[in-house]
Write a structure and sequence with these properties.
Blueprint (H helix, E strand, L loop, with lengths): L1 H11 L8 H8 L1 H4 L2 H8 E4 L2 E4 L6 H7 L6 H15 L4 H5 L7 H8 E4 L2 E4 L6 H4 L8 H18 L3
Antiparallel strand pairs: 1-2, 3-4
Helix pairs in contact: 4-6, 5-6
The structure holds heme C (2 copies).
The site of one heme C (HEC) has 18 residues, from helix 3 and helix 5.
């Protein structure tokens, strides 16, 4: 009975809304697979609207049910969403930012504030779209894509 109550509470808590996905990746996956974005782009693909492993030819969601003893359903759903977004993102961050910054997640944690869904430099207080005109050397198109993916990552990090 107690077990069932705990299970119900866990289910009510939903898909771990407050979980930092990038910390989950770094803690559970990164040691073997490196950066999530690099792994997604090199090892995964979208086929028939499904996120698939290139080597195994299997859907990632299925694979993770048994991989390393299995991950929880909310973790799998969250990881699949993150990896799917990464497969579909061009590696703009790598091209323009990761010579100096470790990862998008790190930039957000160390350098960015989010207010009303908009990103601002922590030091300058400047709107990131403005800041990047003079920082990082990306053209307008790339800047747009970088802001878009940083906004998505901020969401994944539950970064406020
Ligand atoms: C202890 C090392 C290790 C950890 C930790 C690990 N993996 Fe893996 N993973 C592997 C290896 C090695 C493979 C290659 C296939 C195999 O031998 O199982 C693999 C394969 C995969 C595949 C299949 C790729 C394909 O081509 O089908 C996916 C997807 C995957 N891992 C995702 C994850 C995710 C997400 C996590 C964290 C939640 C994770 N892995 C944690 C070692 C690891
Ligand atoms: C040549 C190295 C270099 C490159 C390339 C670079 N950065 Fe930076 N970035 C830095 C340094 C150093 C700082 C901190 C000190 C400073 O403000 O100059 C910084 C600060 C920042 C800040 C904090 C701004 C603030 O107001 O606090 C953000 C956000 C940022 N970088 C994002 C990016 C993004 C996104 C890219 C890619 C488009 C990028 N950086 C490319 C070196 C770099």
């Amino acid at each position: 009975m107690i077990g069932r109550c705990v299970l119900l509470l866990v289910m009510l808590a939903g898909p771990a809304a407050a979980e930092d996905l990038h910390a989950l990746w770094d803690g559970q996956c990164g040691a073997c697979h490196g950066h999530a974005g690099d792994f997604a782009r090199s090892s995964l693909e979208i086929r028939n609207d499904q996120l698939m492993g290139k080597a195994s030819g299997r859907p990632v969601a299925e694979y993770l049910v048994v991989h390393n003893g299995g991950y929880s359903a909310p973790q799998i759903a969250a990881l699949r969403a993150m990896l799917t977004a990464q497969v579909q993102t061009t590696p703009e961050f790598q091209a323009h930012c990761d010579g100096c910054h470790d990862s998008a997640a790190q930039v957000l944690r160390d350098w960015v504030l989010v207010r009303d869904g908009h990103l601002f430099g922590r030091q300058s207080g400047q709107d990131l779209e403005q800041f990047l005109i003079r920082h990082g050397g990306a053209d307008a198109d790339s800047r747009g894509r970088i802001i878009q993916s940083l906004t998505r990552v901020a969401d994944e990090l539950n970064h406020r």
